[in-house]
Amino acid sequence: MIQWTKQLNAAFGASFLWLICMIYFTQGFRSFVWTSISYQLKDNLKLSPSASQFVFSVAFFPWSIKPLYGILSDCIPIKGRKRIPYLVIATVLSLVPWFILGLSSTLRDSTWHLMVLLTAQNLGSAMADVVVDAMIAEAVRYERASFAGDLQSISWSSMALGGICGSLLGGYALSNLQIDTIFLLFCVLPCIQLLSCCFVEENSENSKAEPEDSIVRDSHMNGSTLDEDSPLTKKSHSSTRRRKKGKKNAKGRAVNSSKSKIYKKGDSLALKWFHSLKEAIYDLCRAFRQPMIWRPMSWFFLAHVTIPNLSTVIFYYETEVLKLEASFLGTSRVVGWLGLMLGTFIYNRHLKYMTLRKILMCAHIGLAFLNLLQIAVVSRKNIAFGISDKIMVLFGSALADGINQFKFMPFLILSGQLCPPGIEGTLFALFMSINNLGSTVGSFVGAGLASILNIDSGSFDNLLLGIIVHALCNFIPIAFLFLIPKEATGSST
Question: Is the CB of residue 481 less than 8 Å from the CB of residue 342?
C-alpha cells in the first residue's frame, strides 16, 4: 500500500499541481480577452448596450448547466478514464474559438457567428472548471498527492493572480495591439493547458468499476462562478452532523448498489451508462424536491432575476461619456479583485457568526445605497464637489465587489450545508448553476430595461432612471428572506 501511494504521489505530483495552477490561472486571465470582446461589440459591430448584453447573456449560458458536464464525466468514461479525456475536450473547445476569431475577420465581424463561437468557448471553460474540481476532490479524498491539503488555496491564488494579470494586461493590450492579435495571444494559455494534460496520468482502474459507483465516489464537482467565484467553493463542505447522518444510511445505499449491479450485470455498456445517468438525475431531482433545499435556492435565484443587470450599459457610458481609457478600466477591475479579497476577509473575521438573513439583508441594502455613487456620476454631482470620475469608478468597483462577496459567501456556506451525503458534489454544481442561471436571466432583464428606456449608444438620457430602478429592485429580495432558514448562520461549522 505504501509503495502504491508513493507511485500515485509521483504521478500526480508536479505535473498535476502545474495543471491545476494552469487551469485556474487561465480562468482568471480570461478578463484579458473578454475586455476586447466588449470593445468589439461596441466599436466594431456598433451594437446597442441592450444588444451587447444579450450577446453576453447567451454566450455565458453554458455556465448554467454545469451539473451536466459532471454527470457525463462521472457516468461515461472515455477509454476507461473519466477526467483527462473530458479535460482535453474542454480545452480544445476553449481554444479553437479564439483561434478562429483571431484568424477570420469575417466571423469576428458577424454578431451571430461571434455569439456562437463565444458560447462554444464558454462551454469548454465551464466543462474544464467542473472536471478540474472533480480531480481536486479525488486527490484530496484519496490522498493521491502530498500537497492535497493545499490544493484549495492554490486554486484560489492561481485564479486571483490570473484575474489581476488579465485585467492589467487586457487594457494595455487594447491600447497597443489589434484585436485579432489579442485573440491569438490568448490562445497560448489553452495550448499550454492542452500540452499539460499529456503529462498527467489518470489511473484507469478507478473507472473499471460499475459506472453508477463513480457517482458516489467522485461526486465532488464544485462549480465556479463567472468568473471569479469558483475557487471559493472549496471552502464550503458538509458539516460533521451531516456526515454522521450519511454513515447512518450507508448500509442501505450499499445494498441498493449491490442490487443494481446484479440487475445490470448482463447489460451492454451503453445500457449501463444509460442507467447510471438516469440514477444520477433521479438522485438530484429527489434531493432538490426537499423544501429545505429548494426554498433557499429559490431565494438566491430570485435575488438575481429581480435585479436588472446594467453592467454593459454602464460600460458604454464610461467609455463614451466619461471617456475612460481601456487601461484604466482594466485597473478598476484589479481594484475590484482587491475589494473581493477584502470582502472575504471581513466576512470571515466579523460576519460569519451572524444569521444569514441579517447578512443578506445588509448586503442588499448596501448594494442599493451603492447606486448613489453611480447616480452622482451620471448626474455629474461628483464634479460639483471636485471628485473626479476615475476616483468614483475605482471606489465604486471596490465597494461593489466587496459587498457582493457578503452575499456570495452565505450562498457557498449554505449550499455546502444543504447538500445531502452521496451526491454533494453534483448537487453543489447544480446550486452553482442555479446561481449562474439567475445571473444570466438578470442580464436579459437588464437588456430589456435598457431597451424599454431607450438607452442606447450616444443616448443616455434615461440612464439615471435605469439606475434608480436598479437601486429600488435591490429591496425586492429582502421581502423573500423568509425562504432562508431562520437559524442558519454564515459559519460552515
Answer: no
